[in-house]
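User: Hi! I'm working on a homework problem where we have to compare a predicted structure to a textbook description. Could you give me the structure for the chain below?
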Amino acid sequence: MRKFLLTLSAVLLISSAFAQVVVRTFLEDENRVPRERFVDMQHLKLEVSFEPEKGLVKGKVEHQFTVLQKSVDHIELDAINMDIKSIKMGEEDLKYEYNDKIITIQFETALVWKSNHTLSITYEATPRKGLYFVGWNDPNNLSKKQIWSQGQGIDNRHWIPMFDDMTDKVISEMLVTMPEQYQVLSNGILKKSKSLKGGNKLWNYEISHPHAPYLIMLGIGEYEIEKRKSTSGVEMSLYYYKGEQNKVEPTYRHSVAMFDFFEEKFGVAYPWETYAQIPVQEFMYGAMENTTATIFGDFYLVDSNEFLDRNYVRVNAHELAHQWFGDMVTARTTTHAWLQESFATHFDMTYQGEAFGKDYFDFVRRGYIQQSLDASNKDLRPIAHSQAGTVRHYPKGALVLYMLKNVVGEEQFFSTIQYYLKKHAYGTVDTEDFLIAFQENLGLSLDWFWEQWVMKGGEPHYKVNFEELENEYRFEVKQIHERNELVGLFKMPIQFEVHFKDGSKVVKTEWIENESHSISLPKEESKKVDFVLFDPNNEIIKAVTFNKPLEQLKAQATNAPNAVDRYEALIELRGVLTPAEVARMFEKETSTDVKSELVIHAMMDLSFPENYEVFSKAFSMDDVEVHKTILNNTIIIDEVREHLYVSLLSSSSNIIAEKALDLLCFYRLKDVDKYLELSKSRIGNRSKNVRIKWLEWSYMTTQNEDHLDELISYLSNSYEFITRTNAAAALERMNVMNEQGITHLIDGLFSPNSRLRGPLNGTVKHFYNQTMYQLMIRNVILSNDWSEKELNTLKKFLVH
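Assistant: Happy to help. Predicted C-alpha cells:
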C-alpha cells in the first residue's frame, strides 16, 4: 500500500530576504530523519593488521568525541559479529554490553555536556562484508592477493567498531601493518611508512577534513603506481597491476582533463590534498568514491582493445565528481541520496559529452529517459526518497539536473553549484538546501520544479497534434498521463519547430503547464513544410504521442539537425523505407547510432542490392557499436555473407570477436574447424571471454577432454568472478559437468561476492534438476566437511 503525506510537512525560516521555504513530503519515507546520537565523533584512529588466510582482522580503534547532550551515561557503537577484547577510556576499563550488532558502553559517571573524550576498543573480526580478502586461499597461487574495503551503505561496521552513520563525519586515520611486498592505500595523506622487523611495513594515512564513515577505505595488494598532476597541482596516484603498464593509458585516459574540467565548472577547487585510484579483483559494483581514494573493479583496467568494449571514462568521471558531491558535501540521510548519485551521474554524463561529443551525450540522455519511463511502470517514487531505486537516483536524477540547468541557464546553474558547495563544504545537506541555494544565490523560487521533478514521481505524457492552417501553424498539446497524489500536471518550457524544405525554420518556446495548450506559429506563405518537431533533441523527460505523416517522418530522418531526432523518426519508419531510401540515408548520415539503426533497416531484407551494400559497408566501418548491431540482428550466415563475419574474428574488440565466433559456429557448423583454427590463440579480455567461447565450441564438436578440463578450471577460485561466471554459463549451455566442476561451483556459493554467488547458484540448480547430476552434487557435498552456516546453504541440495 502506498502511504502519502500530503502537502506541508515543515516550514523552514532562513536568514535571508526570503521569508519561508515550503518543505513538501508527498510519499512517506522512514529514512527521512537522521539517526539520533549522544556524542559527535571527531576523530577515528585505526591500528590494524591481518591474518589474511583466515580472513582475520586484528584492530585497535580510538574514537575522539564531544558530548552533545547535557548528561550522557552511555553511547552505542555499531559492530557486527566481533570479538571485543577490551574497551578503555585512558587506562580505565569500561563496562559494556554487546549483542553482536551494537556495543552499548556504560560510563560510571555521566559525561558532561560539550566535554571531549577518547575511548579505545581492541578487537578481532572475520567480516563477511565491509572488508574482503581475495586470493589468499587459492591453492594454485594464480589469483591476485588483495585486501580491500567497501563501506557504503553501512558495511564498515563489519570490520571497524564505529558510529556508522553518514551524518556524523569524522577525520579518519589509518595505521596498517602488512608484509613489505604489498602496497597499502587509505584515505588522505601518507604521513609516513616505515619498515618493521620480520619483513613487515607500517603505513600511516590521515585525511585532512571530516568525511562520512562509509567513505573510510583500505586497499592492499601488489601494484605499481603512476603519478600525474592536475593543472592546479593536485597529485594523482594511478594504481595498476605489475606487468600491466600497457593498460595505464587506456584505463586512465582523460583523468587529468576531467579533473581540470570539474574544477573549472564547479568553481570550487578539488576539496582534498591528493587523489588516488586503485583497481581490485572481485569488486561487486563499478567503483566506489572513497574520499581521496577511489576503488574500482579491475574489469575496468583495460588495454587499448578492451577499451573499445568497456572503458573507465564514465565511471572515472562519476567517482571524481563524488569527491565534491558526496564526500565533501554529504546527504544527511539516504532520503537525499540523489544529491550525491544524481549529481555524480549528471556530471559524468556532462564529461562524456566533453570527451566523446554531442551525439554521444544526446544518446546517453535518450537511454536515461527510457529507463526513467520504464521505472515509472513499476512505481511512482520520487527521486528524493531512500527507496527511489537505482534508475531514479542515477539516470533520472541526472536528467532532472540537466532540465534544471536548461530552465535557469547554464551560467546561473553553475554559479549556484559553486554557492551550494562553498556554503556546505565538509557538511551535510538535504534536498531543501539545494533549493534554498537557488533562492539565496539567484533570487529564484523553484518550488514548482522541486515539487514536480524531485518530491513527486512520474513523468509527463504529451499528446501532440500539428496542423497547417490558412494563417498559422498550430500545435495542440495535451498532458494525458494519469494524475494522482504523486503525479500532477507538469510545467516546463518546451520548444516547437517547423522546418521548411529550403532548410529554414520557425521556432517558438512556450511554457506548457495546463492540461491542454494551443501553440501558434506565424505561417511562411511561400514555404513548404518539411517536418515539425516537438521538444527537439529530447530535452525533457517525457513520453510523447505524436502521429506524423510518412513524408514528414522521412524528411525528419534525413534532415533533422540533431541525431536523436533523426533516430526517433527512423524507429517509426522501420519496415517502411525503401532500400534506395535506406542507402541514401546511410551515405549521408554521420551519427554512429543513426547508422546502426539504418543497418537494422537494411538487414530486414538483404535480397535487395541496396540493402546488401549498406550491410557490407557496415562491416568495413571501424566502429564497434555498428558491428554489435550487425551481430545482434543476425539470423543467418550463408556462403555469400560468411567472409564478412569471418573478418570480425580479427576485430580489435574482444566482444565482437567472441560473438562472431559464436554465430559462425552456430550457423555454419560444418566449418567449425576453420573458425576455431582462426581463433585458437586469442584469449580475449581479463575474463577470457574469447577463450571460453572457443573451448565451448571445441569441446562440443571434438569432445576433447583437455579442453573440458581447462574450462572446468576456470570455475575455480584461482580466477576472478567474471571468468568463473563465463565458464559456468558455457558449461550450462553445453550441459556438461564433472565432480571437480561441482566442487568449484559449491565453493563459489560461499563467496561474499553476490555477482559470483548468484549465477553459480543458478548453475548448481541447473545441474541438480537433472537426475544424472543430482547424485554427483550430493556426493560432493557429503564427502566434505562444512560449517553449520555452509550446511544451511547446501541443505536445499540434500533434502527433497
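For your comparison, note the following. Residues 1-23 have pLDDT under 50 and may be disordered. The chain is about 35% helix and 25% strand. Good luck with the assignment!
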